[in-house]
Amino acid sequence: MKYEIDESLLDEKNMLTMKLLHYFITEKNYNPVILQGVDNEIWLENLDEDYRIVRIVSGNILNEEQFRFDVFKTKRIVKKIKAKTLTLKINTLSIFLDIEESFTEKPSKDITCLKIKSETDIKKNKILKKFFPDISKKLKYSEEGLQLFMRITNDINKHNVKDNKKVEEVFRQKYPLVTYTLITINVLIYLIPFLFNEINFFLNKFCLYNPLIKNGEYYRILTGAFLHANIFHLLFNCYTLYVIGIQLESFLGKIKYLLVYLFSAITASLMSMIFLGNSVSVGASGAIFGLMGSLVYFGYYYRVYLGSIVKTQIIPLIITNLLLGLMITGIDNFAHIGGLIGGSLITIALGVKYKSSTFEKVNGYILSFIYLIFLIFMAFTYTM
Fold first, then answer.
1. DSSP letter for each residue of 32-57
2. How far apart, in Å, are the Cα atoms of 189 and each of 173, 201, 230?
3. Mean pLDDT across the stretch 324-329?
4. Can you tell me the distance from the alpha carbon of 294 to that of 348, in angstroms, rounded to the nearest whole number?
5. How does pLDDT run across 137-168, given as a tens digit for each residue?
6. pLDDT of amino acid 146
7. Are residues 248 and 164 in the same domain?
8. What is the rounded distance in angstroms from the CA atom of residue 247 to the CA atom of residue 251?
9. Where would you tag: which of 42, 51, 63, 304 has the fewest CB atoms within 10 A of its CB?
10. Does 247 map to a domain?
11. Is residue 96 classed as helix, strand or coil in its secondary structure?
12. Which residues are CB-contacts of 79 (< 8 A; sequence separation ≥ 6)?
């Protein structure tokens, strides 16, 4: 079967649009933003770049009034993207390919507008040279006309398929073996002493208790996170671990997830030692708060997919539980805070697949190490 290409798609403006699309998508990893009711413009998004939004506007702008309306519309759409992606500031670059009037390059502090009608304009533009220094070089092709159109289309399709496979890999549900194992351990550690009427012995032997830890029973820093005071305490923590854990384990992978849990449990116990003095503390909630902190950090990187969930469910859950800890006696809120910070920092160190840079991971390890050493020093030298 023979297909024909509309010749209008090969005119100078459309080919320039295709070249810019090819550059931003395949070279700079921008992704198309799906918008309803927006014609003659393409929105691209990369939240890791200086210009997080790039607009390529092919529609004709005839006068100042149309331009001002375009800026107003852009601000409104960007505001919605901010809310969805939990982003406070989004610098937007609008590239106009067909505009008649002159205008300021900065109609607002977050929006930059460029008048580009040819590749020569791209070479001369100071903003493009500053933020995308390789753009002129990357817009040179050996193909022309229909061959160039087909090459660009195929390259963009291949890039999108590759990106979609990465996202599918990260979000594909995996069997939560570690979560089920942790829940089982918590349940068994409660049930076995209960069946043999040895609950008090286990609590006394393995709970978090400052004087005995400082006397050399360091294992209590970890074992206290697997003990529970009563059946309701156990059920609540196991249910929360189930809800959050099965998702986070799938996102991070089993080893990273387990490391986040254990590191959070340890930092929660150390923070508890600093502020609770000689009080006894038990429970997995500090480690679970670490998982919530980890999920927020993961959700930040994949906020295009999880932004609304993090904003409407995870963050309110963290805040609500911290507030309850302040209002209800008997809740170890210091362990919650210690685990929350610990889980966030160790996740920075371990990294988010396909997103975290080596620089970020190294900084995460440094911060996690400093945090851990600080807590150890304070726990063993200072008591409220």
1. EPP-TT--SEEEEE-TTSSSSEEEEE
2. 29, 12, 12
3. 81
4. 8
5. 988 888 888 888 889 989 989 988 888 898 88
6. 82
7. no
8. 6
9. 63
10. yes
11. strand
12. none
Residue 276 predicted with pLDDT over 80: yes
The answer on 215 and 101 residing in a single domain is no
- Give the pLDDT confidence of 89-117 residue by residue, as tens digits: 899 999 999 887 666 566 778 899 999 98
- 283 and 228 in a common domain: yes
Tell me the residue range of the domain where 106 lies. 7-170
Statement to judge: residues 235 and 192 lie in one domain: yes
Which of 231, 248, 262 has the alpha carbon at shortest distance from 368?
262
Q: What's this model's pTM, rounded to 2 decimal places? A: 0.82
Q: CA separation (Å) from 107 to 47, 75, 82, 114, 127?
A: 21, 11, 19, 11, 15
Catalytic residue numbers read: 285, 336
Q: Are residues 141 and 231 in the same domain?
A: no
Kindly state whether residues 244 and 129 are assigned to the same domain: no
Pairing relationship of beta strands 92-96 and 53-57 according to DSSP bridges: parallel
Domain count, the chain: 2
pLDDT at residue 105, as a whole number: 60
User: Tokens 């040819």 map to which residue?
Assistant: 118
Q: Which long-range contacts (CB under 8 A, 24 or more apart) does 303-308 make?
A: 303/47, 303/84, 303/85, 303/86, 303/87, 304/31, 304/45, 304/47, 304/84, 304/85, 305/167, 305/171, 307/84, 307/85, 307/86, 308/84
Domain assignment present for 2: no
Same domain? 239 vs 302? yes
Is 112 strand, coil or helix? Answer: strand
Among the ranges given (85-94, 188-197, 238-247, 302-311), the one the predictor scored with the smallest mean pLDDT? 302-311
337 and 356 co-located in one domain = yes
- Cα 64 from chain centroid? 39
